[in-house]
TrEMBL record:
The keyword Membrane does not apply. It comes from the Bacteria. One of its GO terms (molecular function) is purine-rich negative regulatory element binding. It comes from Paludibacter propionicigenes (strain DSM 17365 / JCM 13257 / WB4). This is PUR-alpha/beta/gamma DNA/RNA-binding protein. Keywords: DNA-binding. Belongs to the PUR DNA-binding protein family.
Length: 124
C-alpha cells in the first residue's frame, strides 16, 4: 500500500503543470505546458490536440487526436534556431501569412506576475 502511495505521488509530481498557454488554431489547439521533472528541472511539453468527428448527426462521436513533444532546456537554443530558420524560409518562399482571427485560449501561471510564455519572445 505504501509503495502504491509513493508511486502515485511521483506520478502526480511528474504531471504538475507550472505554467500553461493554449493556442486555438482552426481545428487544432496547441498547449504549451511548462512542467517540472523528477529532479526539479523545468521542461516544455508541446501538445497538439485535433478534434475528430466520426459519423453524422445523432450517431456522430467526437474524439481528440493528441501528439506530444517534450523539449528540455539544454535543447532550447538549438530548437529556437531551427524554428526561426524554417519559419524564415517559409516566409521568404510564400510571404507573410494572412492573419486569422485566432486567439490565445488561456494562459495560466503558478505564480502571479510570471505571465510570459516560452514563445513570447519570437516574432513569427
Amino acid at each position: 500500500m505504501e509503495v502504491e502511495k509513493k508511486k502515485f505521488e511521483i506520478e502526480k509530481k511528474d504531471n504538475e503543470i507550472i505554467y500553461s498557454k493554449a493556442i486555438k488554431a482552426g481545428k487544432r489547439i496547441y498547449y504549451l505546458d511548462v512542467k517540472k521533472s523528477r529532479n526539479d528541472d523545468l521542461f516544455l511539453a508541446i501538445t497538439e490536440s485535433k478534434k475528430k468527428v466520426v459519423g453524422y448527426e445523432e450517431t456522430s462521436q467526437v474524439t481528440y487526436e493528441k501528439h506530444k513533444i517534450f523539449l528540455y532546456k539544454e535543447d532550447f537554443d538549438k530548437f529556437i534556431e531551427g524554428l526561426e530558420d524554417v519559419v524564415g524560409f517559409i516566409k521568404r518562399e510564400q510571404g507573410e501569412a494572412i492573419q486569422r482571427s485566432e486567439e490565445v485560449v488561456e494562459s495560466v501561471t503558478a505564480e502571479e506576475g510570471k505571465s510570459k510564455s516560452f514563445f513570447d519572445k519570437f516574432k513569427f
